[in-house]
Amino acid sequence: MSDPRLTPDPALATQNRPAQVAVPVADLCRRPDGPRDRQVLFGEPLTVLHEASGWAYVQAEKDGYCGHVRQSALTAPRKATHRVSVPATHAYARADLKSPDLLSLSFGSLVTVTAETKDFAETPQGHIPRVHLAPVDARQTDPAQVAALFLGTPYLWGGNSRWGIDCSGLVQAALLACGIPCPGDSDQQETTVGAPVSSDYQRNDLLFWKGHVALVVDAETMIHANAHAMAVRYENIADAIARIEAGGDGPVTAHRRLGA
User: Which residues form the signal peptide (predicted)?
Assistant: First the structure.
């Protein structure tokens, strides 16, 4: 049986129109007005498969995830040149940090730079500090370091941004920033990212529980977005394993290593 998260509904796939996200963050819902499954960020490319009653049924380019977003959150595609490489940034009315801020953007958002000054990059949305951007094809090399950018971010089920993120959203943001393909949900990540290992924990290993995933920082520490702290936090691995099992969510179900 096909996974409806990754396989477009043939009854709804009546269009094939490129678009991109035009708001800082948009919910990707299971059905119109339904529960949030994931989120998509400003500038992310999508394929619109169907439109009705103010909603668009789309498939995200970054991971193939399908869902419904509000039509008002979409616009015609524009070629991105840069991505936000810090936890969050602002687009200002002028190349002046004291000018009004027009838009807030999360890590990973995609923008089109049309001109540059000494300190700012001009985009159709406003002027963004150059130090907050990286070329769109630039890749980082350490997922755990990327995940650390989100420390303190509030936990949000299905969240993918600095304003709120969940366990699989954190792992996906960290891996995609390093050029490593990664699906959106933890059960998908558990079967497709890396390979099983049974040795000691190494930096950037992934630990899975039923419905949860964490990224190893060192032999004793992991980082994860979790409902226990309601935020992205570091946690001792042994303590987390004991706490999660005592809480009724069971033991570790997989230990996987990137590049193994």
Answer: none
Residue corresponding to tokens 């042994």 = 238
Are 201 and 240 in contact by the 8 Å Cβ rule? The answer is: no
Q: Which two tokens stand for residue 86?
A: 């810090």
Domain carrying residue 113: 82-135
Burial class of residue 141, CB neighbours in 10 A (0-12, 13-18, 19+): exposed
Two tokens at 33?
């007005």
Instruction: Provide the phi-psi class of 131: left if phi over 0, else alpha when psi is between -120 and 50, else beta.
Output: alpha
Cβ neighbours of 182 (radius 10 Å): 23
Burial class of 217 by CB neighbour count within 10 A (0 to 12, 13 to 18, 19+)? buried
| Helix, strand, or coil (residue 9) | coil
d(CA 29, CA 22): 17
Which tens digits make up the pLDDT trace of 129-142? 999 999 999 999 99
Same domain, 185 and 162: yes
pLDDT tens-digit series, residues 70-101: 999 999 999 999 999 999 999 999 999 999 99
Structure tokens at 172: 């996906």
Number of domains in the chain: 3
CA distance 152 to 195: 29
CB contact at 8 A, 109 and 42: yes
CATH number where 28 lies: 2.30.30.40
106 shares its domain with 171: no
> Whole-angstrom Cα distance, residue 123 to residue 55?
27
